[in-house]
Design goal:
The protein is α/β, with parallel strands linked by helices and 511 residues long. The chain has 15 helices and 21 strands. It binds flavin-adenine dinucleotide. Flavin-adenine dinucleotide binds next to helix 3, strand 2, helix 4, helix 5 and strand 3. InterPro entries: Class-I_Pyr_Nuc-Dis_Oxidored, FAD/NAD-bd_sf, FAD/NAD-binding_dom, FAD/NAD-linked_Rdtase_dimer_sf, Lipoamide_DH, Pyr_nuc-diS_OxRdtase, Pyr_nucl-diS_OxRdtase_dimer, Pyr_OxRdtase_I_AS. Pfam families: Pyr_redox_2 (PF07992), Pyr_redox_dim (PF02852).
């Protein structure tokens, strides 16, 4: 379990703690006193719950709390709801992935299907507009859901004044403050910068710049071959950039990706035109000229090289974001990775302050943040909640997609677990064959003795949808035989899933 268990402080009555807080606040902080006097209507009533951050973790928790009948407010400083995911993450990147894939398909994959296409042109401005339309539709949708569920939306930056009071610097100008019996911190994460390279989101970019470039770069270097780097790299590669990915590790996709699958997707992306430099360390960068020069060295020392690029994408990971939150005013500290430390019920050492999403432990994924939003409210309202951290799927939305859930082969080997492996190629699946889209495999790993599924790893068309079945199987403790004996519609890609399960407990039929 990755959470550290903290001793629980003796519960104070809400009234006691609010009064106590007010006293120390009055005594210690004249600045915030002044802010409170200039407050707005919302400060008049004490909320049951205030959530700082309107990203996936925060907005889901707010809606769930509203549904449970709590008096709830959500503070968001961005001006739109949905956080990184809806504004600059999952959604805009998938819009660009989808449309760049269509463009690439029309350019390179129509002739043998009997479709002759005339002059194909990229209109990057319209491609970006389509992305913005999806984003604004979805973020406005969350505002609608807030209204529907009685959530008060406060647009501004929240900072702790004391354990029950959050001051808000409002976007529209002015300040207010809110008091609450309970507070959730859901402030998310930010891109980790690369030392020595100044991010200007034009020449040296993070994923935020990568979803908004105004022209296709000639040469792009991606520092970091994890999911975000590969997704954004493949968007710009499809649109015509010469993309080189520099990765410190010996495999792409990050350590969670099964090594066999990682090798396969690397080959496929190489075939699509991307270049990879693995086991390679970026030493420094020089962005003073028209292009950016990146100096690299073999990870184990030795071979040096300089890469030249019009645009460098820094994709070396994300770090928890707590800047300006006033944690010092309530004595909360972060660990060495910047994460807020919590117990199994998402509580900090101040029990009525909980933390959910990217800003605390676990994979930085939107669906993980969402699960925590629901569970944290349930812990608050019912005393129990449920998130199975062993069954959180990961998806990389390249083409083909890569998706997995549970443990990979290298993890099982390292843990000394005896397992069986079975796989099935899409090249033997009837639907993949009719779609002329046959690259990839489905691979099951199950316990050698009990056949209980330990992990499922897919590279292939629609892997991101297919992994839901594997996740459900894992959640219910299914065996590969359970899946193999379940009827799957014909002709579908999901038959490859069933056949891989068959290959694990016995033999596949069609391969
Ligand atoms: C390019 C990219 C692609 C991604 N694609 C996927 C994907 O396909 N699938 C997936 O599962 N995950 C994806 N992710 C990760 C996903 O976006 C995050 O895991 C998710 O957004 C985390 O949600 P969160 O609510 O914890 O944090 P966030 O979404 O970061 O939300 C936190 C919010 O808090 C606000 N905030 C911070 N401090 C304050 C404050 N003091 N006062 C008020 N507001 C504050 C911020 O403005 C922000 O809106 C992607 C991320 C990126 C960058």
């Amino acid at each position: 379990m990755f959470r550290s268990i903290l001793p629980r402080a003796a519960p104070k009555s809400v009234l006691q703690s609010v009064r106590g807080a007010q006293t120390s606040f009055r005594a210690s902080n004249i600045y915030f006193q002044d802010r409170l006097r200039r407050g707005y209507a919302s400060e008049a009533e004490e909320k049951d719950l205030v959530i700082i951050g309107g990203g996936v973790a925060g907005y889901v928790a707010a809606i769930k709390a509203g549904q449970a009948g709590l008096k709830v407010a959500c503070i968001e400083k961005r001006g739109t709801l949905g956080g990184t995911c809806l504004n600059v993450g999952c959604i805009p990147s998938k819009s660009l992935l989808n449309n760049s894939h269509l463009y690439h398909t029309i350019l390179h994959d129509t002739k043998h299907r009997g479709i002759d296409v005339g002059d194909v042109k990229l209109n990057l401005a319209t491609l970006m507009k389509a992305k913005e339309t999806s984003v604004s539709g979805l973020t406005k949708g969350i505002e609608f859901l807030f209204k529907k569920n009685g959530v008060e939306y406060i647009k501004g930056t929240g900072a702790f004044v004391d354990e029950h009071t959050v001051a808000v610097n409002l976007i529209e100008g002015g300040e207010t403050s809110v008091k609450a019996k309970n507070i959730f911190i859901a402030t998310g994460s930010e891109a980790t910068p690369f030392p020595g390279l100044t991010i200007d989101e034009k020449k040296v970019i993070t994923s935020t710049g990568a979803i908004a470039l105004q022209q296709v770069p000639k040469k792009m270097v991606v520092i970091g071959g994890g999911i975000i780097g590969l997704e954004m790299g493949s968007v710009w590669s499809r649109l015509g950039a010469e993309v080189t990915v520099v990765e410190y590790l010996g495999q792409i996709g990050g350590p969670g990706m099964d090594a066999e699958i990682s090798k396969m997707i690397q080959k496929m992306l190489t075939k699509q035109g991307m270049k990879f430099k693995l086991n390679t360390k970026v030493m420094s960068g020089d962005d003073s000229g028209e292009t950016v020069k990146i100096s690299t060295e073999a990870a184990k020392g030795g071979k040096e090289e300089t890469l030249d690029a019009d645009v460098v994408l820094v994709a070396i990971g994300r770090r928890p974001y707590t800047s300006g939150l006033g944690l010092e005013n309530i004595g909360l500290e972060t660990d060495d990775k910047g994460r807020l430390v919590i117990d199994q019920e998402y509580r900090t050492k101040i029990p009525h302050i909980r933390v959910i999403g990217d800003v605390t432990f676990g994979p930085m994924l939107a669906h993980k943040a969402e699960e925590e939003g629901v569970a944290a409210v349930e812990f608050l309202t019912k005393g129990y909640g449920h998130v199975n951290y062993g069954a959180i799927p990961s998806v990389m939305y390249t083409h083909p997609e890569v998706a997995w859930v549970g443990q990979n082969e290298q993890e099982l080997k390292a843990a000394g677990v005896k397992y069986k492996a079975g796989s099935f190629p899409f090249s033997a699946n009837s639907r993949a064959k009719t779609n002329l889209d046959t690259e990839g495999i489905v691979k099951f790993l199950s316990d050698a003795e009990t056949d209980r599924i330990l992990g499922v790893h897919i590279v292939g068309p629609n892997a991101g949808e297919m992994i839901a079945e594997a996740t459900l199987a894992l959640e219910y403790g299914a065996s590969s035989e359970d899946v193999a004996r379940t009827s799957h519609a014909h002709p579908t890609l999901s038959e490859a899933f069933k056949e891989a399960a068959m290959a694990t407990y016995d033999k596949a039929i069609h391969y």
